[in-house]
């Protein structure tokens, strides 16, 4: 006698899909939300924005005896900070048959076209959040050791690299390919104490002077906190290393001695940074932004002194919570770079925007048919590009500070 089995009946059995689709991706964009909500929003037109700065006092002074020679006249110092617009894009491509197959509830849990267009806009915001914390040149990570003819690279950080990313491995100082590689895909990513990525193609040879960038994006991304709040760098075409331009430095505080020798950022470190900012610039720290690991260690010191418990956490905009240092909230943002804590004066930031987030529009339609392999032919595949023309500017970096080399968790 034959026995009917589940394996034999597989062709007639149905899959049970329990909808709706459950989100598995962190889409929070706290810092970007704060910039858009609390910073001056400037509609940018023309080639670039110019911010006039008052940079130095009149130094023509002195005390004399009666009838003495009067001091030589001095002048007030001024400079122009120049902010260019940056152009950011994200693309979608959808087969027309897939769109038609998902237009009804009977055919799919969600509408493919709506899902792809909405998801593209959300992903753009998440990437802009990354850029707001970035180094201004698009750097995702630096090679931690020399690599010879390999697909596997060890980086100092893989926090901002994801499987599927199209990347370039380039010389950091020049952007040249040299012995690196361009337009390859990240096929594997490993966090923890040893942080590595595996590429779809080998690099010929690369040293610790090489960095990883989103393909084509080097030097084209928005300014971020790590280059805005830094010392001895060029920002908005003003070089703070030039004698007399020290006013253009952000306030830096090293808690540990290096990236490999970190120290816990306790209450005193946060207070010291706030005091340095208040002394250096025409403004005070309004909020600290850092990682969960750094904030947890700060909270642990409070708990050991019986000064803090969860009930005393402060609720702030967007469903986030904070603990306080001298009435200044310390907020954890998941996109903050590991081992960093930023002390921010929100009024010093300006969001320059030439075009708000939206789709490239051709004759009233955001989608166009994909060009075929033969000139003049089209495929039944729709393409669209989401755009955002904007850049983050700062009128006074010295109103902001950063703590580096803080003991933190490695990204998992």
What does this structure look like?
It is a single chain. The model has no long low-confidence stretch (mean pLDDT 89). The chain contains 6 helices and 22 strands. It has a domain at 130-136 and 221-404. It starts with 29 loop residues before the first helix and ends in an 8-residue tail after the last strand. A hairpin with a 6-residue loop joins strand 20 and strand 21. The protein is of the alpha+beta class. The radius of gyration is 26 Å and the shape is globular. Helices cover 16% and strands 34% of the residues. Strands 13-22-18-14-17-16-15 form a 7-stranded mixed sheet, covered by helices on one side.
Secondary structure: number of strands: 22
- The average pLDDT score comes to 89
Structural shape = globular
Order of H and E elements: HEEEEHHEEEEEEHEEEHEHEEEEEEEE
Poorly predicted ranges: none
- State the end-to-end CA separation: 54 Å
Structural class of the helices, strands and pairings? Answer: alpha+beta
Q: Going across the biggest sheet, name each strand in turn.
A: 13-22-18-14-17-16-15
Explain the layout of strands and helices.
Layout: H1 30-38, E1 40-43, E2 48-56, E3 77-84, E4 86-95, H2 96-101, H3 112-132, E5 139-142, E6 147-154, E7 166-171, E8 181-190, E9 196-206, E10 210-214, H4 225-228, E11 234-235, E12 238-239, E13 251-254, H5 267-280, E14 287-290, H6 292-304, E15 314-316, E16 320-325, E17 328-332, E18 341-344, E19 349-359, E20 368-371, E21 378-394, E22 401-404
Parallel strand pairs: 1-19, 13-22, 14-17
Antiparallel strand pairs: 2-3, 4-21, 5-10, 6-9, 7-8, 7-10, 8-9, 11-12, 14-18, 15-16, 16-17, 18-22, 19-21, 20-21
């Amino acid at each position: 006698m034959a026995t009917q089995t589940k394996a034999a009946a597989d062709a007639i059995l149905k899959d049970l899909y329990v909808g709706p689709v459950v989100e598995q991706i962190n889409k929070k964009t706290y810092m970007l939300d704060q910039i858009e909500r609390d910073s001056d929003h400037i509609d940018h037109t023309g080639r670039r924005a110019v911010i006039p700065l008052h940079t130095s006092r009149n130094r023509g002074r002195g005390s004399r005896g009666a009838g003495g020679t009067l001091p030589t006249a001095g002048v007030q110092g001024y400079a122009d900070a120049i902010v260019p617009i940056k152009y950011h894009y994200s693309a979608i491509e959808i087969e027309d048959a897939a769109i038609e197959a998902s237009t009804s509830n009977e055919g799919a849990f969600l509408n493919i076209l709506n899902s792809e267009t909405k998801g593209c806009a959300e992903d753009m915001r998440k990437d802009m959040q990354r850029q707001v914390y970035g180094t201004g040149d698009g750097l995702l990570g630096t090679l931690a050791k020399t690599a010879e003819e390999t697909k596997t690279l060890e980086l100092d950080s893989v926090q901002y690299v994801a499987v599927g990313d199209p990347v370039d491995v380039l010389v950091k100082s020049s952007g040249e390919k040299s012995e690196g590689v361009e337009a390859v895909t990240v096929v594997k990513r490993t966090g923890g104490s040893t942080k590595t990525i595996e590429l779809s193609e080998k690099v010929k040879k690369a040293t610790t002077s090489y960095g990883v960038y989103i393909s084509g994006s080097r030097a084209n991304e928005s300014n971020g906190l790590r280059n805005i709040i830094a010392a001895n760098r060029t920002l908005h075409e003003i070089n703070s290393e030039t004698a007399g331009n020290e006013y253009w430095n952000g306030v830096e505080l090293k808690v540990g001695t290096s990236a490999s020798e970190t120290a816990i950022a306790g209450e005193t470190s946060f207070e010291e940074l706030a005091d340095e900012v208040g002394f250096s610039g025409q403004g005070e720290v309004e909020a600290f932004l850092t990682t969960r690991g750094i904030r947890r260690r700060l909270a642990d010191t409070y708990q050991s002194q019986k000064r803090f418990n969860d009930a005393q956490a402060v609720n702030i905009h967007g469903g986030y919570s904070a603990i306080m240092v001298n009435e200044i909230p310390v907020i954890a943002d998941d996109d903050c770079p590991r081992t960093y804590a930023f002390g921010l004066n929100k009024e010093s930031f300006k969001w320059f925007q030439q075009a708000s987030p939206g789709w490239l529009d051709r004759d009233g339609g955001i989608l166009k048919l994909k060009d075929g392999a033969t000139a003049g032919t089209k495929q039944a595949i729709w393409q669209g590009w989401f755009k955002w023309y904007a850049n983050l500017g700062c009128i006074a970096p010295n109103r902001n500070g950063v703590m580096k080399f803080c003991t933190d968790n490695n990204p998992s």
